Amino acid sequence: MGTLRQIQDTDLQVTGTEVAAALEAILNSQTFRTAKAQQKFLRYVVELTLAGESKQIKEVSIGMDVLRPGKPFDPRLDNIVRVEARKLRLRLAKYYETEGAQDPIRIDLPPGGYVPVFRSTLTAGERPTFAGHENGSTEPALSLDALANLGGPRKFAWFRTRVGIAVSSIVLLFAVASAVASVKLRSQPVVRSAPSVAVLPFRNLGEIREDESFSDGLADELIDSLGTVPGLRVVARTSAFQFRNGGADIHEIARKLKVQMVLEGSVAKYGDHLRISAQLDDTNTGYRLWSATFDRRANDALDVQREISLAIVQDLERRFSMPKVAVASTALDKTKPVSPEAYRDYLRGVYFWNKNSAAGLQAAISYFQKAVFEDPGYARAWAGLARCYVGLPSFFALSANEAASKIRDGAQKSLALDSVQGESHIYLGYAAMLVHDWPAAAKEFEIGLALEPGNAVGHRWYANYLLLIGQPAKALTEDRLAEDLDPVSPYMMVGTARTLRILGRDDEAVALLKKALDLDPGFVSAHQGLADVYLHQKKYPETFAELRIAEQEGGDSPRHIGSLAYAYAVSGRPEEAHRGLTTLLNHPRGSVFAAKAIAQIYIGLDDRDRAFEFLSKAIDAENTSLLLKVDPLYAALRPDPRFSELLAQMNLQ
Q1: Residues 603 and 575: beta-carbon distance below 8 Å
Q2: Which of 325, 327, 336, 502 has the lowest tally of Cβ within 10 angstroms?
Q3: CA nearest 201: which of 170, 169, 163, 241?
Q4: CB atoms within 10 A of CB 474
Q5: Degrees, nearest 5: CA angle 476-478-482
């Protein structure tokens, strides 16, 4: 980071500190109080100038970043910048005729341009001195009280009456732009708590709506790259993207996501031209910590993504005094070059993968395959394929063994190209879990999460592994980490609630499941989870109410039919339980497909022989959701010697 800029004018050098204070005085004045557009206009051009980025001050940038944010802007068709510039000049003139008549620093916007000029109204003898200008220090040599008295009340009353407390609370020092990202930064005292950031979806301002895959993919990549930084909590996509439509203010986002910073931006793509703007804001104060605008060729998109990540990481090194961040910064800086076409197809793959549907998964696989064809050395694209293959058993009924083989293929190719790909190790852990190779699963999950501690899904999968091997207390720790990284994700809440239920903490589980339903009233797994808890508590009316909602929302899947029939069985309604059992035994895809649900019904009917028979079939069918060691459902079976045989069948004995 550099030292504070000094701005040369015709009379004296004006420091950035003085200009920052003068700007706040103007923006807090009666003259400007209701002029929101002109406030934003003035702050934008002053801060860019202080950061040494006055060349970026163009009519189009003011239109897109300030006056028409989130919308396409063409200065040939829209004269709003020129209109607001005229209004701003008139309002500044009025301010200096009235409230600002005695201000020691003037900020003007000369006609014919948008770059502001700064000048002192004091003589050299009247101006306060600032210590350390020779050695780069920017701290005032005098207190605000002393400054207020220097030069008499005529010149410095403004420090107390208009800026006063505001100057002591806002950032006084502006750092020189980052060399990597041509950014503007406002310095703040070093923060001692662990940093946290949410990356919101970037707005697509381009000519083609399909470019949303690019803008969303860019935000996804920023989440992933920042998630590798040790000690930095990066909110997962599911939670961050709930604020896509921009209805919430920064304080609401901070409250819901529990973050100190928010990164947002926009992408405008016109032909071969690409304009990416990004801003990092402090959620406590609302002040802008960092911002950058990149005007590049479309083929340079990956470079821009890296530059944004690097710029933020480098700022965090200074802001939070985290020496380990430097390691991540270096790793990011040495990322291998990638074919622009492969990068675009990779982002499209990420976009469709996040659709969480069969059609989306097919499209994602197609784009990731195109990416590795265009650039076989692109490690992230191979990891993307492994990510897709994880969903094959759920969406296309592929066997666990077949899916595990495909996952391993993609993940291993990714790691051969980039040995520190944390997500690829996590996928290898998932593949090992599918085939009950528990030592390999533990090893890969632990390596992956050490390399990528911000991977919320990885923590959730690791929690599931820990439940499978019989360690619910440790699983809860991982569930909590996943929930912390993805704080408004119903999926993560349901995972934590399941573990709480297993640990016998029913009231906490119910509260969390209701919170999940507040976020998504139709979330089937949350209704199913509530039914499981209520059934354990023998609250049968509440159980049936939740199960009926789950069935309405999710259809007549074996899980829902089995849960309902089991509830009938344990509540003394065996005839209805048998009807559900008959339905599953005659399932179009065969009874083996529904083996776990059938076993559950037999447990409820206290037919242990048949329960063991179908649990064994479920294991043969590679069912990976059998929490034999911890789920209260199997408590009555555990004393039976045959239970040890089931555990041995899953390599758990």
Answers
A1: no
A2: 336
A3: 241
A4: 16
A5: 115
Residues 6+ apart with CB under 8 A from 92: 26, 42, 107, 108, 109
Query: Per the structure block, which two tokens stand in for 322?
Result: 């985290």
Structure-token pair, residue 575: 């005839």
Integer distance in angstroms from the first to the last C-alpha of the chain? Answer: 57
Q: Which long-range contacts (CB under 8 A, 24 or more apart) does 132-138 make?
A: 133/6, 133/15, 136/3, 137/3, 138/3, 138/4, 138/15, 138/16, 138/17, 138/172, 138/173
Q: Of the candidates 625, 623, 614, which has an alpha carbon nearest to the alpha carbon of residue 637?
A: 614
Query: Three-class SS of residue 12?
Result: coil
State which of 49-53, 116-120, 140-144, 174-178 shows the largest mean pLDDT.
116-120
d(CA 69, CA 294): 16
Work out the angle at residue 325's Cα, subtended by the Cα atoms of residues 322 and 326, and round it to the nearest 5 degrees. Answer: 110
- Nearest CA among 52, 284, 116, 282 for reference residue 187: 282
What the block records as the tokens of 50 is 């202080």
Alpha-carbon gap, residue 330 to 228, rounded angstroms: 12
Which tokens is 127 given? 């101006």
Q: How far is CA 281 from the centre of its chain?
A: 14
Query: Based on the number of CB atoms within 10 Å of its own CB, is 395 exposed (0-12), middle (13-18) or buried (19 or more)?
Result: middle
pLDDT exceeds 80 at position 564? yes
> What is the distance between the alpha carbons of residues 248 and 590, in angstroms, rounded to a whole number?
49
Tell me the per-residue pLDDT of 75-95, one tens digit each, with 9 for 90 and over: 878 888 988 998 999 899 888
pLDDT score recorded for residue 265: 84
Which is more confident, 144 or 51? 51
Strand segments (E) across 235-312:
261-270, 273-282, 288-297
Output the pLDDT for position 210: 54
Asked if 467 and 451 touch (Cβ cutoff 8 Å), the reply is: no
Q: Tell me if domain 184-333 and domain 336-452 are identical in fold.
A: no
Q: Of the candidates 308, 317, 361, which has an alpha carbon nearest to the alpha carbon of residue 335? A: 308
Nearest residue to 173 via CA among 184, 183, 186, 159: 186
How far is Cα 401 from Cα 431, in angstroms, rounded to an integer?
Answer: 8
Is the CATH number 3.40.50.10070 carried by domain 184-333? yes
Strand pairing report for 196-199 and 261-270: parallel
> What angle, rounded to 10 degrees, do the helices at 325-333 and 301-320 form?
160
Q: Above 80 in pLDDT, residue 193?
A: no
Is the pTM above the cut of 0.70?
Answer: no
Q: How far apart are CA 381 and CA 653, in angstroms?
A: 38
- Cβ atoms of 604 and 569 within 8 Å: the answer is yes
Residue 285: pLDDT band (50, 70, 90) is: confident
The amino acid present at 348, given as its one-letter code, is R
Helix or strand (DSSP H, E) at 423: helix 422-434
* Residue 39 CA neighbour count, 13 Å, CB half: 13
Q: How far apart are CA 297 and CA 274, in angstroms?
A: 5
Q: Tokens in use for 13?
A: 């050098």
| Whole-number pLDDT of residue 471 | 96
Round to whole Å and give the CA distance between 160 and 521: 52
CA 216/CA 318 separation, integer angstroms? 29
Distance CA 611, CA 613 (A): 5
Query: Encoding tokens for residue 643?
Result: 């239970």
Give CATH for domain 336-452.
1.25.40.10
